[in-house]
Every structure is written in structure tokens, then in C-alpha cells.
């Protein structure tokens, strides 16, 4: 199985994701240059964090026009796994692979810190090794992570169990004071209806090794590996 | 801008050159310089580029060491060996003046500039640190500066994806109107991949890469260009505008280019832009260069050669590429959608020659602009104020009735309060190397692929330096070293920024010289050579010069990441000790300034042999796993240090019960024991069964070892012989300490 980490000009968590997949998880991984138009042979595509195209115009707004994005959309339609982290989540929203939009953080400041998120749906290829309600200690680092979605679409998200992560306290309590950026319904991560595209603001690659203070992110990568291996075994 | 017809003395002076210097230029050229040449001399001979006032003094710094691979002054940044075929490239630089004019862009471009100095040497930058100084936050202008500077650093560092892992921020009235913004950048390179900023190999091609050239930052290194002509409305402010996205592309393209093996030399176009980069690379390579400026990409119409040569537009670099490899260089830059344009070649005659197509524009001997630039031995006189401020009679100070109130005042003083509001705005984790996050004594970054880690700390107490520049200079080095020792690192080398007032003022120059002498002595003794840095003079505001502020950026090396120490208390029942025996003093303390409104007295004494012995004890104890926490005693004294160890880990607050009876020989005043400041001391904690082994190590080195108390659950209690001085709930202290800075900014 093989991961591909897309490199947009301005991506800056690309190396981190690459490192974790290769050295910590021990899977095969390539960088994929944004001008490329071939995703053959990949099982999971990572859209990493950073400031693609300097986040000029609007976060993720230019990156979605990169040649590779057409392929990523195609790839996801065929059931391939796509995970967008931070800026990658923003790109997925702009590309229409996930619903909703990002606004600037409630306090109008960039925020980088460890937060807690609660797993709302452990039945996705990305979260299957968690149990529902499990609390992860995981860092965020963004200026535009204040997720917005209109009330109607939100109920649809909830109904389809598309809300994957919500900000919460250490003990799993969801309340305004534990929501770092003002996101609607304290949303930290969502998936598409089919469940094969995940967007999340927190950075699992930053908490996949004990030396960094938390290994909670590791289970996300391992969930992906397990899902793919099962699929490959079936094929 | 139009070229003035005649070069007269007024024009010369407007360029910041003296009459004598002008005569010297004429002698060098054997003729009158033209306008472009005058501009080139003015920037290259400016204080900023030539170090003409500071050069003789800076020679006092020790620069040799077994780990030093590139010495101070040889290249754009120092390089030290950390083993495993790896080297660390690091340097600190100031961006004070631009930040005083436009805090956001001034600070942002300061970050951009220092990052380029690191990656042009072939290193991948892995961390940024900042040392910031502002006036009191009661002044709205200082709040504006703080917001702007922090915003600018965040904007640039976050976007380019290099973690800003900490630093220090200090507030004092002397910085009112003249904030200090010093930025440190650290990179890692394989030893055999270090790139020099040298032009070599006659016939090799000089490439211009990166952004186009505009009028922004014109002459930022030397003068206000608006005094030159009537048409100053055409000029842009001397502050540049940063584009971190462009720099990110430059960074990646440059590292890719170096890997391809086509690079001979490389330099950032920083201060004095195209001029300094071409001249300095030629000078270091002992050769000449010839460029055609008609080939330089421009973002504005009608720029004259003078403007092109003096522009400080950001995100540009000069790359010297092996002859015949030009297409490979172009291919890599095109991949990243960047300009890479051959604009000239390396020559053998030692002349800096500029053409505009076929028309000669300037011809200057390279060395006359660099090694042979003027150097001045400035006059120095011991400042008159020193006698008055150094005397402090502590018996005249009223004794506080309520130490709880004093403690809270100190913890909520912006100088001691948590700087979380600042560092939360910085992405301090990108790169996944940050093992110890901001807050503690030093930041720690692992070195991937090894068991090693780097520890970084910035320090410099301007108040101490104001009261005693020599001792203050020593303390700046020692405190920075002590901070990295507290996390378990051996201090190996420093970089620095020396921030002072106007060097032609003999009293300022005395301060400068004494600070450097003090730093040099400490560096020599502690075995931490100076690998580079910069000098920022002319830091003045309407009420006078800033406090003399040398800032030290210390690099420490940890051999084994399993042996990293943190400053917070770990477990109830652990014992708390004070290791070290410096003399506690109120002179220059935050307590004296905040509570009694005085900036007086002598800073705490620093005995370098005791300091060095403390490092040995601390590192040995950490290496043997004998101590569970270590935290330097600095601003706010022992009480503050203990509180910080209780609350700095927000995941788990601890309490402490302290008895000061073992400190009584320091003096009978409780405020002195609680809040007085001291050198060469750390507060450490250990499990009760290890206390004897720990004490033995300290005694072997003849270092003071005093039991302070024990770690408890939730309350902080400090007493002396049964008399309760302080009793507080630590969760409450945490809240006050954490929120103080953001409350001040509301």
C-alpha cells in the first residue's frame, strides 16, 4: 500500500506527514508535486497543512485549481481515501469535496496549542481504531479554523454521522470554553457522506510520537492502514 | 528618481558620509564618484554593513572552539559541529528601526532576512526565536508595537513553516518608542553540504533569483533618501514588505539547487541588497564581479541604476553557479515558478563593475568597500549616571505588609506573567521537532535521525546592563547558558544582537565596550565561542538611549533525548532544593522596579567559576536521573521560581511548602529572600531517596545546596521559621499569571 502527500507551493506540513507515515507508521509514501496529474498506485492521499499559495485570496482557494486537485476529486469518487489536515481541510472545502466553509478564528488571532477533541464517529476508515467518545490530546495551529455550516446542512451532517471530531474538555465535555476557534457545533473534523474523505483542523502528524508529548494521532494513521489492508486483501 | 547633476558636499552628507570619507573615496577611485558609486559607498560604509564603530571592540569576543566550523565574520552565519556529520547554522539579527516605523512589516521582514541567512548556507531552518523589548504596556503605543511585532512574526514564520519556539519579551520605559526586535534562526546541514557566500572561479555565472526589484526599502541600510532630491514623493518608505510565500518557494528551490551540486556560492540580498551581496561574495572570494543591471527584473518603471543597486526589496538572492550548469539552475527555479536570471560573471581583477547594457555605470575596487572600509576607534567615557544609580541602601526601603499581594503583583507584571498570548500566535510545532514547547527556560528541538536534541535560549537583562554594563554582559551569557543547562543541554556556542544608543556618544560607547568585555569574559570562561551576530546602534527615543541591551542566543546540545529535564514539579512528596550559592540582591530586580519604582543598585554578583560548577552539577544530576525538575532563578527571585515550577505545566498544577530558614544567612529581610534576584542558582526537585546522592554531587563541586521544602498538592505555602509569609492556591495563581498579559492588551 502506498500513501501520497501532495505538495502545493506553500505546503509546510508535507515533510511532517511524510516523516510520520514512513518512519513512525512504517508505510511507503511519496511526495506528489501539485503539477502532477497521476495518482495511479496510491491508496491514500494526504493534503497537508501549510499556506498553499500563501493563502492569498482565501485559504485553499487557489490550491483547488492546481492540476492535482482534479485527480484528487476523481480519486475520491472511486472510493480512494483522502485526508486533509488544516490547510488540507480548507482545500477540501474549497474543492467542494466537503461541505461548509472556514472563517477567521473567533478571537481574530492565529492559535497554536494542544486541545482536546472527542471522536464522534469511530466508524470511518480514519477512526476505526478509536471508540466513540474517546478523547484525543492533539494540537491545532491555524488562523482560519472557525468552521461554518448553515443549520440545515448541519442537521444533515449530524444525521449522516459526518461529524467526526468535536472540540471538548479533557473529560470529553463539549462547551464554548473548550472550543478554540468558535466553530459551529464545536466541529474539528468532518467526513463526506461516503466516509472516504476526512477533513480535520487538528494535526495528527504532530502527536504521533511519545517524544512529542502525545501519541493520540497515531491511531488515525493506523486506522487508515488497517482499512486499506483489509480492502487490498479483499481485492 | 532623477540623478542629481552634481555631487556636492550636501549630497555626500545626506548619504551619511563625512567629508573625510568623501576625500577617501576620491583617492580610491582617482576621480569623483558618480551618483551610483556614491550610493554604493554610502551603504557599504554604513555602520550597518561595515561595523566601522564596533569592529575593534568585537575583536574581544572569543571565536575559536573545537566545534566551530565557520567562525564569526567569515560567512553570513556561524556554523558549529554537533557530531553525526551534522552541523548547526545559527545567527541572530535585529530589526529594530524598521519595527519602530512599521511594527508588523518591520518584524516580519526581520524574520525573513535571518531565515535567508541560514538557508543560503545550505541548512534547513528548523526554528526561530525572538527577543523583544517594548515600553510599558500602559502606553497605548507600546501595545500597538507589541500587537504589530507579534503579528508580523506570526505572519511570516507561520506561513513559511518554521516554528517560532520561544524567546523572551521584556517591558521597560527605556524602550518606549524604540522597541527591539531581535530574531534568531537555527538550521541544520550535513557537514559536507555547507555553502559559502563566496564568488569563485573566473567565468562562473552570477544569478539573480527570487522577487523582482522595486523601490521598497530603498537605502534602508544608510540614510533617508528623501533629503536627496525635491522629488521625494516618488520614494517609498524605507521599510520593506515581506512575502513569506515567496520565501518558502525560495527556500525549497535553494535547497534543491544545492543538492544538485551546481552552486559555487550564495548570498541573501539583505541590507544594501544587490550591492552588498555582489560586493561581499566577491570580497570573500578574492575576485571581481561584473553585472549588467539592465537584466535585473523590476517591478516598477523608470528605476535608475542607483535605485536598483540600493533597493532592499525582500526575498531576493544572489547565486553563483558553475559555468555550464546554468540550465540546471534555471530548471529548478522554474519548477518553483521563480525568476533565475544570469546577470553577470565572476572576474579576476578584483573590481566591482556595473554596466547598464553597454554603458558603464560603476567601477569600484571590491576590497575598498569591505575590508578596507573606514574603521573608527570611538571615544568612550564612563557615564556620569552610574555613580548615582549604583548605590542602593536597602534599609531605606519600606517593608511590605502583605507578601501575597507582592507575589501576585509580580506574577501579573508583564515581565514575569506567562507569554502564552504571544507564543500561541506562533506555530511552534511545525516540523515536528519541538520536544519542549515554549514557556520553560529553553526550547528543545530533537534532531531527527539521531538521539540528539538542541536547546535554545535568548537572554539579556538591559536593566542589569544599565546598572553595570560589564556584569550585565557577563550575566547575559551566563543566564542564557544556565537556561539550556536546566533542560539538560551543554552550552556550546552563542550568537548575539548588541542593541545600544548612538556610538558617537562616548558614554554609550563605554557601555557598549564594557558589555562586550563582560560577555567576552563569560564566553571565554564558559567555553561558548561567539559565532556571529549583529550590532544595532542608534536606538534612541526622545528621552534618551535605550538601556544597553546585549541579547545572547545560546545553543545547547543534548546527547540523549531520554535525558531532557523540564522545569515543573512532578510529584507530591518530592523535595525542593536550591542548588548554587550566588548572593541574593535587590539591585536591579523586578521587585525593586515594580514595587518600589527604583532602577538602582548593583545587579547580583556573578562568579563564573561557581557558575561553571553549577552546570557540571546540574548536568551530572540530570544525566544520572537524580532530579525531576530544574528551573533557573531569575526575575522575581526564588518565590517566583517556585511558583513557576508549580504552574508552568497547565496539565498538572502542583503545590509547594517552602521554609526559607536555610537562606537566613543571606539577610534578614523577607522581601530579599523571597523576591531578590541571584545568579548561579536553580530550583530543583528530586525524590526523597535521591537527595543524598544529589547533595554529594553538589558538595563535590563545592556548590551550595539548600533544602527549601517539598512538593505538595494544591497550595503554595512559604514560611520562615514557622511564620507564614505566603499562602496561595496554585490554580488561582496560574489563572492570574496566565491571563495577565492578555488583560493588559484588552
The share of residues in helices of chain B is 25-40%
CATH architecture of the domain at 565-746 in chain B: Alpha-Beta Complex
The largest inter-chain interface, given as chain pair and residues per side, is: A-B, 32 and 29 residues
CATH superfamily of chain A: Class I glutamine amidotransferase (GATase) domain
- Give me the CATH fold name of chain A: Rossmann fold
Task: Characterize the largest beta sheet of chain B: strand count, sense, and whether it forms a barrel.
Answer: 7 strands, mixed
Radius of gyration of chain B: 26 Å
Alpha-beta classification of chain B: alpha+beta
The name of the CATH superfamily of the domain at 565-746 in chain B reads PurM-like C-terminal domain
How would you state the average pLDDT of chain B, rounded? Answer: 92
Indicate the mean pLDDT of chain A.
Answer: 95
The CATH class of chain A is identified as: Alpha Beta
Number of helices of chain A: 5
Low-confidence stretches of chain A: none
Question: What is the strand and helix layout of this fold?
Answer:
The complex is a heterodimer of chains A (235) and B (746).
Chain A: E1 2-7, H1 14-25, E2 28-33, E3 44-47, H2 67-77, E4 81-85, H3 87-94, E5 101-103, E6 111-119, E7 135-142, E8 146-148, H4 151-159, E9 163-168, E10 187-191, E11 197-200, H5 218-234
Parallel strand pairs in A: 1-2, 1-3, 3-4, 4-11
Antiparallel strand pairs in A: 5-8, 6-7, 6-9, 9-10, 10-11
Chain B: H1 9-14, H2 19-29, H3 35-44, H4 47-50, H5 55-58, E1 68-70, E2 78-83, E3 86-94, H6 96-101, H7 103-119, E4 124-134, H8 140-160, E5 164-171, E6 180-190, E7 205-210, H9 244-259, E8 263-268, H10 273-284, E9 288-292, H11 305-310, E10 316-321, H12 326-335, E11 339-347, E12 351-356, E13 359-365, H13 366-369, H14 385-390, H15 403-411, H16 420-423, E14 434-436, E15 443-446, E16 453-459, H17 462-467, H18 469-486, E17 490-499, H19 506-526, E18 530-536, E19 540-541, E20 544-545, E21 549-558, E22 575-579, H20 590-596, H21 608-623, E23 629-632, H22 637-647, E24 655-659, H23 670-675, E25 682-686, H24 691-700, E26 705-712, E27 715-720, E28 723-729, H25 730-744
Parallel strand pairs in B: 4-5, 9-12, 17-18, 24-27
Antiparallel strand pairs in B: 1-2, 2-3, 3-6, 4-6, 7-10, 7-11, 8-10, 9-11, 12-13, 14-15, 15-16, 16-21, 17-21, 19-20, 22-25, 22-26, 23-25, 24-26, 27-28
Amino acid at each position: 500500500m502506498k500513501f501520497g502527500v501532495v505538495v502545493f507551493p506553500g505546503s509546510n506540513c508535507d515533510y511532517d506527514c511524510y516523516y510520520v507515515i514512513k518512519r513512525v507508521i512504517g508505510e511507503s509514501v511519496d511526495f506528489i508535486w501539485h503539477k502532477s496529474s497521476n495518482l495511479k498506485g496510491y491508496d491514500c492521499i494526504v493534503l497537508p497543512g501549510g499556506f498553499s499559495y500563501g493563502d492569498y485570496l482565501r485559504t485553499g482557494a487557489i490550491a483547488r485549481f492546481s492540476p492535482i486537485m482534479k485527480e484528487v476529486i476523481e480519486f475520491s469518487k472511486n472510493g480512494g481515501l483522502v485526508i486533509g489536515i488544516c490547510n488540507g481541510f480548507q482545500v477540501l472545502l474549497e474543492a467542494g469535496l466537503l461541505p461548509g466553509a472556514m472563517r477567521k478564528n473567533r478571537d481574530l488571532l492565529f492559535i497554536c496549542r494542544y486541545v482536546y477533541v472527542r471522536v464522534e464517529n469511530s466508524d470511518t476508515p480514519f477512526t476505526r481504531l478509536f471508540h466513540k467518545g474517546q478523547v484525543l490530546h492533539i494540537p491545532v495551529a491555524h488562523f482560519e479554523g472557525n468552521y461554518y455550516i448553515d443549520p440545515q446542512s448541519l442537521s444533515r451532517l449530524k444525521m449522516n454521522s459526518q461529524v467526526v471530531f468535536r472540540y471538548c474538555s479533557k473529560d470529553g465535555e463539549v462547551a464554548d470554553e473548550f472550543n478554540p476557534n468558535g466553530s459551529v457545533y464545536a466541529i474539528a473534523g468532518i467526513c463526506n457522506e461516503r466516509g472516504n474523505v476526512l477533513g480535520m483542523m487538528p494535526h495528527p502528524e504532530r502527536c504521533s510520537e511519545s517524544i512529542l508529548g502525545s501519541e493520540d494521532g497515531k491511531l488515525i494513521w493506523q486506522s487508515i492502514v488497517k482499512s486499506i489492508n483489509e480492502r487490498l486483501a479483499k481485492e | 528618481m532623477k540623478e542629481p547633476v552634481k555631487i556636492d558636499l550636501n549630497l555626500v552628507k545626506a548619504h551619511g558620509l563625512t567629508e573625510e570619507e568623501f576625500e577617501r573615496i576620491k583617492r580610491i577611485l582617482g576621480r569623483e564618484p558618480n551618483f551610483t558609486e556614491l550610493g554604493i559607498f554610502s551603504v557599504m560604509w554604513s555602520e550597518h554593513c561595515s561595523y566601522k564603530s564596533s569592529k575593534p571592540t568585537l575583536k574581544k569576543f572569543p571565536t575559536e572552539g573545537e566545534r566551530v566550523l565557520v567562525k564569526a565574520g567569515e560567512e553570513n552565519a556561524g556554523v558549529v559541529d554537533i557530531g553525526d556529520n551534522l552541523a548547526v547554522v545559527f545567527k541572530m539579527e535585529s530589526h529594530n528601526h524598521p519595527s519602530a516605523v512599521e511594527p508588523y512589516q518591520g518584524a516580519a521582514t526581520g524574520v525573513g532576512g535571518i531565515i535567508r541567512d541560514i538557508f543560503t548556507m545550505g541548512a534547513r531552518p528548523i526554528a526561530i526565536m525572538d527577543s523583544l523589548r517594548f515600553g510599558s504596556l500602559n502606553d497605548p503605543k507600546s501595545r500597538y508595537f507589541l500587537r504589530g511585532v507579534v503579528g508580523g512574526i506570526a505572519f511570516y514564520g507561520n506561513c513559511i513553516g518554521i516554528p517560532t519556539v520561544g524567546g523572551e519579551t521584556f517591558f521597560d520605559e527605556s524602550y518606549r518608542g524604540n522597541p527591539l526586535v531581535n530574531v534568531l534562526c537555527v538550521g541544520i546541514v550535513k557537514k559536507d553540504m555547507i555553502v559559502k557566500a563566496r564568488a569563485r572561479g573566473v567565468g562562473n555565472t552570477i544569478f539573480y533569483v527570487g522577487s523582482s526589484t522595486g523601490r521598497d526599502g530603498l537605502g534602508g541600510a544608510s540614510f533617508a533618501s528623501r533629503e536627496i532630491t525635491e522629488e521625494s514623493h516618488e520614494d517609498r518608505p524605507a521599510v520593506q514588505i515581506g512575502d513569506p510565500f515567496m520565501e518558502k518557494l525560495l527556500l525549497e528551490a535553494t535547497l534543491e539547487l544545492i543538492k544538485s551540486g551546481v552552486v559555487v556560492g550564495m548570498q541573501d540580498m539583505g541590507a544594501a541588497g544587490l550591492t552588498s551581496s555582489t560586493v561581499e561574495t566577491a570580497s570573500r572570494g578574492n575576485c571581481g564581479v561584473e553585472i549588467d543591471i539592465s537584466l535585473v527584473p523590476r517591478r516598477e518603471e523608470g528605476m535608475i541604476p542607483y535605485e536598483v543597486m540600493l533597493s532592499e526589496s525582500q526575498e531576493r538572492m544572489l547565486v553563483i553557479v558553475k559555468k555550464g550548469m546554468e540550465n540546471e539552475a534555471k530548471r529548478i527555479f522554474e519548477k518553483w515558478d521563480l525568476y533565475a536570471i544570469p546577470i553577470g560573471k565572476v572576474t579576476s581583477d578584483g573590481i566591482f563593475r556595473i554596466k547598464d547594457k553597454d554603458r558603464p555605470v560603476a567601477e569600484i575596487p571590491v576590497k575598498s568597500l569591505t575590508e578596507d572600509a573606514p574603521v573608527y576607534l570611538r571615544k568612550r567615557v564612563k557615564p556620569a549616571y552610574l555613580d548615582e544609580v549604583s548605590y542602593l541602601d536597602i534599609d531605606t526601603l519600606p517593608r511590605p505588609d502583605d507578601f501575597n499581594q507582592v507575589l501576585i503583583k509580580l506574577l501579573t507584571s508583564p515581565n514575569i506573567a506567562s507569554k502564552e498570548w504571544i507564543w500561541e500566535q506562533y506555530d511552534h510545532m511545525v516540523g515536528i521537532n519541538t520536544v519542549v514547547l515554549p514557556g520553560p527556560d529553553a526550547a528543545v528541538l530533537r534532531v531527527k535521525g539521531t538521539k540528539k536534541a538542541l536547546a535554545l535560549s535568548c537572554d539579556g537583562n538591559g536593566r542589569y546592563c544599565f546598572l553595570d554594563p560589564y556584569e550585565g554582559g557577563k550575566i547575559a551569557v551566563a543566564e542564557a547558558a544556565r537556561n539550556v543547562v536546566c533542560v539538560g543541554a551543554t552550552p556550546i556556542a552563542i550568537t548575539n544582537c548588541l542593541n545600544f544608543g548612538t556610538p558617537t556618544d562616548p558614554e554609550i560607547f563605554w557601555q557598549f565596550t564594557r558589555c562586550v568585555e563582560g560577555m567576552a569574559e563569560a564566553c571565554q570562561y564558559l567555553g561558548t565561542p561567539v559565532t556571529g551576530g549583529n550590532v544595532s546602534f542608534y536606538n534612541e527615543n526622545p528621552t534618551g538611549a535605550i538601556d544597553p541591551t546585549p541579547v545572547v542566543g545560546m545553543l545547547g546540545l543534548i546527547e540523549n533525548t531520554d535525558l531532557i529535564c523540564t522545569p515543573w514539579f512532578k510529584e507530591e512528596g518530592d523535595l525542593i532544593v536550591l542548588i548554587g550559592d550566588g548572593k541574593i540582591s535587590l539591585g536591579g530586580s523586578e521587585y525593586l522596579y515594580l514595587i518600589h519604582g527604583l532602577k538602582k543598585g548593583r545587579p547580583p554578583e556573578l562568579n563564573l567559576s561557581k557558575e561553571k560548577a553549577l552546570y557540571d552539577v546540574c548536568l551530572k544530576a540530570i544525566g544520572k536521573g537524580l532530579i525531576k525538575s530544574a528551573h533557573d532563578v531569575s526575575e522575581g527571585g526564588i518565590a517566583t521560581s517556585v511558583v513557576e515550577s508549580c504552574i508552568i505545566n497547565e496539565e498538572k498544577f502542583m503545590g509547594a511548602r517552602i521554609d526559607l530558614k536555610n537562606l537566613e544567612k543571606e539577610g534578614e529581610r523577607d522581601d530579599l529572600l523571597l523576591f531578590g534576584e541571584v545568579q548561579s542558582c536553580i530550583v530543583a526537585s528530586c525524590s526523597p531517596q535521591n537527595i543524598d546522592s544529589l547533595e554529594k554531587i553538589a558538595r563535590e563541586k563545592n556548590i551550595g545546596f539548600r533544602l527549601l521544602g517539598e512538593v505538595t498538592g494544591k497550595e503554595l505555602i512559604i514560611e520562615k521559621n514557622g511564620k507564614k509569609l505566603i499562602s496561595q492556591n496554585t490554580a488561582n495563581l496560574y489563572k492570574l499569571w496566565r491571563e495577565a498579559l492578555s488583560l493588559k492588551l484588552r
